[in-house]
Amino acid sequence: MIIGAGRVGATTAQILAYRDICDIVLVNRTEGTAKGIALDIKESSPLEGFDSDIMGTSDFREIRGSDIVVLTAGVPRKEGMSRDELLNTNVNVVKPMCQQIKRYAPDCKLIVLTNPLDAMVYLAKKVTGFPKERVVGMAGILDSARFRTFIAETLKVSVTSVSGIVLGGHGDSMVPLPNNAFVNGIPIKELIGKGTIDKIIERTRNGGAEIIGLEKDSSAFYAPASSLVAMIESMLNDRKEVLPCAAYLDGEYGIKGIFMGVPVVLGSKGVEKVVELKLTRDESAAMKASADKVRALAKQVDALL
Ligand SMILES: NC(=O)c1ccc[n+]([C@@H]2O[C@H](COP(=O)([O-])OP(=O)(O)OC[C@H]3O[C@@H](n4cnc5c(N)ncnc54)[C@H](O)[C@@H]3O)[C@@H](O)[C@H]2O)c1
140-304 is classed in which CATH architecture? Predict the structure, then answer.
């Protein structure tokens, strides 16, 4: 079930259909949009060779029995805006939708995409009352994919040889970890000078803004959709991949009561484990600073509920 047939929602539906791994229901406030996109994707099935069923609707009752619900509805930012400026607007979109999710799909695993991500996933947990394993946000996979892309581009090597991870909140305070980035086991610090690594980190932090700056009337949606599909596949197939996601922290990394980007094991039960990396003193301080920013946003959500 994908709620919101906007750019990210529709692209996620398309990739999922092409992978032929599940049936898909696309929900949108305008029924024609959801139905039209679903039909368009379905008509590519003879060419792409998939049998997944895909339907569009505006009726939330259709989410009954959904194993995984992906919430993409909400306003994206425009050029010059921060994600945090969307908070008031998107609380009013996400809150009623979470009430519907609680009502019609009380056993689902819920993946939130809407920005400001760490605040919206916190809101989703509060409104649904779902256990922490079943509510998770998508951001770290995207930020890490950007980090890996820029490393591969700099070194002119295949991106499949590059591993790297970005933790923390999905915003300016995100915490890329150059000490944990490798090219087939070789630390990037042995291959790239500090000045260039710093530039890669800065570009990763501004990854979303860079795309809005280029496109003007759209924020990123291809890489966000691919990131959602990575989470969905790991849950559907119980692959237990270790992926950076916004998970509810209950003391891990010394942080409690908020959602933040950390490596987690994603399986059929949802967030099955938060993996605790050993961080340097500077990295721990950056995580703490990021947590302070996310906590301030969570307080704003509390005040609006
Ligand atoms: N977490 C991430 O890394 C990440 C990445 C990309 C986008 N996003 C966020 O995801 C959200 C969607 O992005 P997009 O590019 O698909 O946007 P979009 O404008 O293409 O689509 C927005 C969707 O939300 C729905 N919507 C908007 N206002 C609504 C309302 N009041 N009631 C019901 N539905 C409403 C629209 O109908 C549409 O389906 C944005 O908040 C964006 O910032 C997050």
Answer: Alpha-Beta Complex (3.90)
Buried b (16+ CB within 10 A) or exposed e, 88-97: eebbebbbeb
Q: What number does the ligand 1 atom closest to the CA of 89 have? A: 31
Q: Which two tokens stand for residue 214?
A: 């280029």
| CA pair distance 150, 44, nearest whole angstrom | 33
Q: Write down the pLDDT at residue 9.
A: 98
- Which among 72, 93, 110, 216 is the best mutation to test ligand 1's pocket, defined by most ligand atoms within 8 Å of the CB? 72
Please count the other Cβ atoms lying within 10 Å of the Cβ belonging to residue 16.
25
pLDDT band at 158 (very low <50, low <70, confident <90, very high): very high
pTM comes to 0.97
CA of 221 to the centre of ligand 1 (A): 10
Measure the CA–CA gap between 50 and 45, rounded to whole angstroms.
5
For every residue of 14-63, DSSP letters joined together read: HHHHHHT-S-EEEE-SSHHHHHHHHHHHHTTHHHHT----EEEES-GGGG
Write out the residue limits of the CATH 3.40.50.720 domain(s) in the chain: 2-137
Superfamily of domain 2-137: NAD(P)-binding Rossmann-like Domain (3.40.50.720)
Q: What token pair was written down for 305?
A: 């509920």
